Amino acid sequence: MALVLVREVVADQGLAVIAGHDGLDRKIISPEVHRPGLELAGFFEHFGYERIIVLGRTELAYLGEQPSDTRKVRLRQLLFFNIPCIIVTDDLLIFDQLIELCNQKGIPILRSSARAGEFIYQLSRYLHNRFAPRKSVHGVFVEVYGVGILIMGPSGIGKSECALELIKRGHRLVADDAVLLTKISDHKIVGSPDEMIKHHMEIRGLGIIDIQSLFGISATADEKPVELVVHFEKWDDGKEYDRLGILQKTIKFLKVEIPIITIPVREGRNLAVVVETAAMNSYLRRMGITSAENFASSLQNKMLKAR
Predict the structure, then answer these.
(1) For the chain, what is the largest distance between any 2 Cα atoms, rounded to a whole number of angstroms?
(2) Contact, 114 vs 163, CB < 8 A?
(3) Which residues contact 29 (CB under 8 A, 6 or more apart)?
(4) In degrees rounded to 5, what are phi and psi of residue 282?
(5) In what order do the strands lie in the sheet with 16-19?
(6) Is residue 252 exposed (0-12), middle (13-18) or buried (19+ Cβ within 10 Å)?
(7) How far, CA to CA in Å, does 31 sit from each of 14, 122, 143?
(8) How far is it, in rounded angstroms, from Cα 142 to Cα 218?
(9) Residues 6+ positions from 231 with CB-CB distance below 8 Å
């Protein structure tokens, strides 16, 4: 199960630690964020205590209107649960009672200068990205005409050389060799590079090359949705390859299906041009234009008229 430490949230969001320094290694096990409303009124039946608690102007104003004894009871009830941390937004002042209780329990109080709505949005994006399912695959990930294409195939078949030719033609490299796939929704996967080899490629005979230094910053991208998989395989004279492309095959990554095409590789074939054409054809498919089906339909109509 994925988890995030409170200190990681502090570093990523630029938060100030006000109290509970001993609890910075507390584990966050949920990507959800919670603003307590009913809980501050004493109703805890459905309280999601595993979530980060955010207090904004509304919550602190409500607590400020309560008598000191009532406020302390409500805060004790809130902190009775093993919540990971409390974040106060808008650079608001924090009650001494809350600071004292959090220091006793080792629950961090963090503060942000951002407004509550804006902060919750950016924090939720960070947490959902950290908790998203991931896997690493071997291949080369490029952006061709705006289409994210994952090139896969056996080692040494020419994936990186094809990607290098595409970069020379003005397309962009996202990742080489190790491609990190992140599921951000039930129908969408984003590919990104491993930080250790970001913007670099391995070309046999040349070694490791820096794409940004050679071709400029516009030749690379940090991430891109995976929209098409192109699988290279050695040409087999005994195998019957798809000649029309009517049937759209898919491959499943992290339970998300991605269209896949198989390209047989043999000497003299211009793979970069083939991948460019596959990108444009994929774009047309998304627009509802299917060249193979249109051709098959025209051929069928012509045969019917000839009878």
Answers:
(1) 94
(2) no
(3) 1, 2, 3, 50, 84
(4) -65, -40
(5) 16-19, 109-111, 86-88, 52-55, 33-34
(6) exposed
(7) 18, 12, 30
(8) 13
(9) 151, 152, 153, 260, 261, 262, 263
- pLDDT per residue as tens digits for the range 186-242: 899 999 998 888 999 988 888 999 999 999 999 999 999 999 999 999 988 777 766
Domains of the chain by start residue, with CATH: 4-131 (3.40.1390.20), 134-295 (3.40.50.300)
| Contacts of 161 by beta carbon, 8 Å cutoff, 6+ apart | 203, 271
Place of tokens 């409303």: 37
* Angle made by CA atoms 203, 194, 26, in degrees to the nearest 5: 165
Q: Which pLDDT score, from 0 to 100, does residue 90 have? A: 95
For residue 4, the cross-strand partners are 28
* Residues labelled as active-site residues: 159, 177, 243
Question: How are beta strands 249-253 and 256-265 bridged, if at all?
Answer: antiparallel
Residue among 265, 258, 3, 240 at smallest CA distance from 127: 3
- What pLDDT shows up at residue 1? 52
pTM of the model: 0.74
Alpha helices (H) in 190-290, listed in sequence order? 211-215, 271-286
Q: Which residues pair with 53 in a beta bridge?
A: 34, 86
> Looking at beta carbons, which pairs linking 97-102 to residues 24 or more positions away fall under 8 Å?
97/68, 97/71, 97/72, 98/19, 99/18, 99/19, 101/72, 101/75, 101/76, 102/19, 102/20
| Phi, psi for 248 (deg, rounded to 5) | -95, 110
Asked if 4 and 127 count as a contact pair (C-beta separation under 8 A), the reply is yes
